[in-house]
Amino acid sequence: MIMSLGPYASFIVTSYAAAALVVVILICWIVLDHRSQTQRLRELERSGVTRRSGRSATDRP
User: What residue stretch is flagged as signal peptide (predicted)?
Assistant: First the structure.
């Protein structure tokens, strides 16, 4: 089904393409940041730094 977008077809298509590109870039950025944060957390845990959330409620520092 081909829809007629009229004289503004190029603007509409370009707008949707730009919005889709921004969404893809944001998704890639989030995935790369998650990998980076996970790797940094592993390095900190390897060096002996522990998470406060990993302690039980009865543990005192």
Answer: none
Please state, in angstroms and rounded to a whole number, the distance separating the CA atoms of residues 43 and 49. 9
CA 16 to chain centre: 21
* pLDDT exceeds cutoff 50 at 17: yes
Domain boundaries of the chain, sorted by first residue: 12-41
Sign (positive or negative) of CA dihedral 46, 48, 53, 59:
positive
48 to 36, 44, 45: CA distances (angstroms)? 19, 6, 5
Which residues neighbour 13 within 8 Å (Cβ) at sequence distance 6 or greater?
5
